[in-house]
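Long-time lurker, first post.

We've been arguing in lab meeting about whether magnesium ion would sit comfortably in this protein at all. Half the group thinks yes, half thinks no, and nobody has a model to point at. So I'm putting the question to the forum: if I give you the sequence and the SMILES, can you give me back a predicted structure of the complex? Inputs are below. Any interpretation is welcome too.
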Amino acid sequence: MAHPRQIPPLLLALTALVSVFMLAPIALSVLAGLVNNYSTGLASGLTLRWIGEVLDVYGGTVAASLLLALLCVAGSLLLGVPCAYALARSRSRWARLFEELLTLPVAVPGLATALALILAYGQLREFRQSFAFILVGHLVFTLPFMVRTVGAAFRRHELLALEEAARSLGASFGQRFIGVLMPAVLPAIVAGSLMVFTLSVGEFNLTWMLHTPLTRTLPVGLADSYASMRIEIGSAYTLVFLLVILPVLWGLQWLAHLIEKHHGT
Amino acid sequence: QNAICYNCPPEWADWASQIKAIKTKTGITVPPDNKNSGQSLAQMVAEKASPVADVTYLGVTFAIQAQKEGVVTAYKPAGWADIPEGLKDPQGHWFTIHSGTMGFMVNVDALKGKPVPKSWADLLKPDYKGLIGYLDPASAFVGYVGAVAVNQARGGTLDNFTPGIDYFKALQKNEPIVPKQTAYARVLSGEIAILLDYDFNAYRARYKDKANVQFVIPAEGTLVVPYVMSQVANAPHADNAHKVLDFVLSDEGQALWANAYLRPVRANAMPKEIQARFLPASEYARAKTVDYGKMAAVQKGFSDRYLKDVQ
Amino acid sequence: MELERTRVDVIDCAKTYADGTRGLQPTTLSIEPGEVLALLGPSGCGKTTLLRLIAGLETPDAGSRILFGGEDVTALAIERRGIGMVFQHYALFPQMSVAANIGYGLRIRGVPLDEQRRTVGELVDLVRLGGLENKRPAELSGGQRQRVALARAVAVRPRVLLLDEPLTALDAKLKESLRDELAELLRRLHITAIHVTHDQQEALAIADRLAVMQAGRIVQVGDGETLYRRPGHPFVAAFLGRVNTLKRDTQALMRNLLPLGGLLLECPPARAGQSALLVRPEDIEIGPLQSGAGQAVVQRRSFLGDRVQLTLSLTDQALLQAEVPRDHPAQVGDTVGIRIVPERLMPCEEAV
Amino acid sequence: MELERTRVDVIDCAKTYADGTRGLQPTTLSIEPGEVLALLGPSGCGKTTLLRLIAGLETPDAGSRILFGGEDVTALAIERRGIGMVFQHYALFPQMSVAANIGYGLRIRGVPLDEQRRTVGELVDLVRLGGLENKRPAELSGGQRQRVALARAVAVRPRVLLLDEPLTALDAKLKESLRDELAELLRRLHITAIHVTHDQQEALAIADRLAVMQAGRIVQVGDGETLYRRPGHPFVAAFLGRVNTLKRDTQALMRNLLPLGGLLLECPPARAGQSALLVRPEDIEIGPLQSGAGQAVVQRRSFLGDRVQLTLSLTDQALLQAEVPRDHPAQVGDTVGIRIVPERLMPCEEAV
Amino acid sequence: MSSTSRLLGACAAPAAAFFSAFWLLPVVRLFALPAEKGWATYFAVLTDGRYLHSLLNTLGLSLAVTLATLVLGGLVGITLARQRFAGKPLLLSLLTLPLSFPGVIIGFFIILLGGRQGLVADVTEWLGLGRTTFAYGLTGLFFGYLYFSLPRAIATYTAAATAMDPQLEEAARSLGASRWRVARDVWIPELAQTTLACGAIVFATSMGAFGTAFTLASKFEVLPITLYNEFTNYANFALAASLSITLGIITWLSLFLARHAAGPAAAGA
Ligand SMILES: Nc1ncnc2c1ncn2[C@@H]1O[C@H](COP(=O)(O)OP(=O)(O)OP(=O)(O)O)[C@@H](O)[C@H]1O
Ligand SMILES: Nc1ncnc2c1ncn2[C@@H]1O[C@H](COP(=O)(O)OP(=O)(O)OP(=O)(O)O)[C@@H](O)[C@H]1O
Ligand SMILES: [Mg+2]
Ligand SMILES: [Mg+2]
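Top reply:
Settle the argument with this. Predicted structure of the protein with magnesium ion, as tokens:
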């Protein structure tokens, strides 16, 4: 006789089913990466052999992807945060136009962006063959996410008042940007960084076109292994991906939570 | 020290061993690369102004096209003289390093008791529904070879692809898997039970990876095709490219191919015990050659027709 | 704390926003040194606009001038005007402690550390926040936050203190007690202050003088009692408290009389020619029915605690609201006598 | 509109939330048919909890019983209790017009279309929304929305009408005028109604009886005048209006006297033994210094419009707040006489 | 206040320069590319049956995925928002985890589920129905796209349903509304904005999804794969550019709609 209404069992069943659909493949692939023979299953015994083989063949891609993602976060912070501030404060039509343009790389297929980059800068051989080429592609793609997330924070009404308060107390632009605005948008910066990091680590569409055999990233390696390797190796590689991205994801989420609590907004 | 090779996949033709050998013998690192022949060619064309690759490994018809596009340059490696005429470009734009015979690579376990198919016609039987795979004939060289083979076997010619196209149309009923890159591992894992592939991959699976894999030369006949290498025009590391090309044609390199069940282009390199593991010569008698120049010339026409009619 | 006392002159100040809205019509206003002025008016009347112009947060239209102690500051950026500001939602820096918030302006100015500490300590005492120095704004109650904001604004010894509805965010009971506290504090600081509010009780309690605004204009300026008792404008009369409207027909008008429950009240000559007059509920006297009083029937009696509100029906006027002391004997249905001292009648049309 | 008049009995009702919070201590309360009862108390005291228990939106603890007209509805879901509810933010369906909102409950019940239309029309007239039938809630002012919510709740002829702070979302000026309007309407409908508020003025103006709550309990129930004048509890006294606390030393206590600016006031016998007493600001009389009056000095004088608030310092008491009529002559610094009618002194400790 | 605008200009300059150099200029060049082969190239997607077919495939698939995602995500999101149980935060965090997976992984997951050796095949064989595989066809793509769209929808709907004013539902119930009426009159109108925003984003993502289709190497050709093939297999840059333009316009339009019709709900998408 509980008055607050019960959820119909049908909905609960559906939720369970969807959860299984979402989680089973993750579990399967973790399992497959750890057993000796996938078709025999657990009976064939557990092993770290496949993971060893993955690290052997694709180990470099893990480090490359992590480094790339960190650089991408750093770059999008340096470029994106001031830009987000400018766009949030400017009332000019040019700013609105630029903002709209900035979101286009999200809409235009990654393949097209990559194609354009190759056609425009492919003949700069050193550049083309270095990770910098991929980094540029990732930056172009992730910048709008950073600008949008941080920009929304800059636009908040309280922040306008905070900035005015700092001005009324005599703070110069630099002082209020560093001392007042940055701490206030820190949660958004962390959220933006998290987004940029995961986007960059998982980026495939652009990277598949931009990479050369010497500049392979984790998803490129994954695609390779899926296309031509044993299912166990592909699974082990997926497991490695999870092991790489999960701590970072949860760490940053925890950090965001901490900041949020600290600021008590 | 790098030499970038387009289309040197470690899971194909035992490039893995070859790459290792190159590294130990010449000190040059060849990073693995998973493109197929068509993709390699396209990439080289795209990068023509500023190539990334130094060497490339292609099915013969793609090499002929690459030569036309001007993306490969002439180089005559050591051992050039041993390559039979017809299996190399007279100027050295491409030259064969080994050859393979098209057939069925069959994972017997994955058939789950169904009989091993013996002919092109067998594959059309509903029994094999969901079990067959072949690489994209419009893109991968091995796919195109399979198409030419079945076309010839069913009475077509390089001027008449209708029997081949009809065959693929009929094959769609069995819901084949059509990957774009080499699918060796998927056969091993049983994901694909019957793959249109070369003898060398099947033997490697059987003898090296100890899988219950059989190679079948279809009763109606099939095709032998050469695989070639070229130096990329304006290669960034031309010196390294030469060393790599020299090595793959050296005795040592050729022996490695033979050990991987690829027929080395320099015939003296085939050891006896390896030869014994091949199917008997009587079976291989059904494997024919064709005019590879012509095969290259009609490829575009076939691809267009395949894309239009089969897909 | 010794604070400067600066005279503020606003001369022909107007503001047209980018979208064409006229936020403020040309306005001239002076605030004496040490005076607390309230800007009072309904929502959208331009109070915040005027305050932000004085602060330097908005650029006024050409021709406007703002003087602080005779010095023209119109072109000066807010950072250099030497003002202190308290915002509606306080705008405290969330990541800083109470002490760091209060000391922010001093840090910015590079004041030596021990002087900073001394000033902050003094202010913490002044606004009675002792013991809370290391808390963060989020951990404070609304009233405490408001006091931090005030301390932060005065820490830099501003020439002028500007407050934009500093009590609006608080709940009713708290607002009432903080109102008195703020009034007390401003008087103790004796600083020139401009206080924006739309609550007449608040303005009356806090300010020395009130400027009542309507639709971008200042309608009347004066001290609270003058505005309440002798409003120059019916808008001011209605905004500062409840009013009843009394009508009279042409005949009564001609003889300057007011019909009031059968009685014809003689109006002061100043009210001649005005067809409607205003009267406040507490200016309606209710007593026994006797000569010299009109006749009214009590329709409703609401006990409001400290007083009782009576709704009266008269034969010759619309329903009237009267407020009488809480022990008044009138009950619903009673017929009572009604009287108004004629001097308490206020004009209903704009005085020119 | 003819509405049913139902008696509501709440018997030993308690609520413990899932997290262990005791939202309501065991409470018994009866509301007479047709009566308007106000639940009054500070934030978090359990007003909403009690209202939602009566509505059927929360499940009470075991042993609780709720009767509507004698029928036990404790186990009945809200859909079938036959109540009407008005929420703090009105909870109007944003996508529906005013008419559709008001008619929603009738549509649910499958009432024939023309009867629906007639009832809605009647209600639109009742709450004076004529002409707005086809507007959407977003296009209405706060006061209009509040009236739509009320009309929607009574359209289904509920047995009991429940209102949870229906005026809180409005601004001060509007609140005051809608308060009277709502009181009027409830009286006209003559329906059993329970009205939750934390504003004592609102409760006094609207309700027939008030139940004052504190920390999950009902402290006192009664009509407004009784609670205001004879509070059974200092909490009730302070919650219904401002109070001053007066202290007396043991000597004065023993003789039941109260020191008041040099005077020793004799207290009623009922106040004997109470070391502190309460008095309301308007019960402090200020006059010329004369015999029979204590002596006080005016510290501050705040003009509040309809009255003047004086802050007084006495030699033998803490600062006192007194409210006098607005024409009172006392000025800051004046020494004045202070008197309190002893019967107006209220107890400061809980009466047992 | 030109000093302010100068300041803002300086803040935006690095990003603007970078963006112009590495996206705007290259893409403008790319968009000019099809013109070299004649203006008709821009319309190849409409005039050539194969491309048109691929476009229609993609549109149909994306619409179906969007619909399924909204229905499933909405129901699950609402359920999760309302149901209290231990481990709910963990489940929510696990369910949204796939947001950070590249498409290739999701393709692989579908192979694990619906491939010849997949879980579904094992289950159907055990049930005596033979080995059912769906990974390499339309069904595989559909489930793959569903897999990467669902987390976003579930997260969005859970947040929206949690933020929803419970009083609206209580008001409807106090007036006697049944479960269905509450859903119809309160939930659906309240979640309409979220649905629009979320739907547009899911649609746009599905239109542009490449990694999943690439891994599944499905016979069912979608536009990104067609585009990729034109570029990598046949070196047909002009056509690839033309297809990119088409795809870009469609996805941009739907994202634009999401942002402007639904405002903040779509922010950060
Ligand atoms: N930035 C702006 N752009 C355009 N119009 C504005 C802007 N700020 C205010 N206005 C308009 O100027 C007028 C005065 O606004 P202002 O904020 O000064 O009113 P206010 O008296 O402070 O009202 P409130 O009591 O609601 O704060 C209003 O009509 C308002 O809509
Ligand atoms: N769903 C809930 N879960 C746990 N505790 C609750 C819940 N709802 C209310 N409470 C607690 O129960 C107590 C009474 O709350 P209630 O909402 O009834 O107060 P109220 O008098 O209506 O206050 P307000 O004036 O702020 O609305 C409070 O301590 C509150 O924190
Ligand atoms: Mg304002
Ligand atoms: Mg409440």
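For your lab meeting: The mean pLDDT of chain B is 87. Strands of chain B lie at 5-6, 55-59, 72-73, 95-107, 132-133, 194-198, 213-216, 222-232, 263-264, 287-288. Whichever side wins, do check it experimentally.
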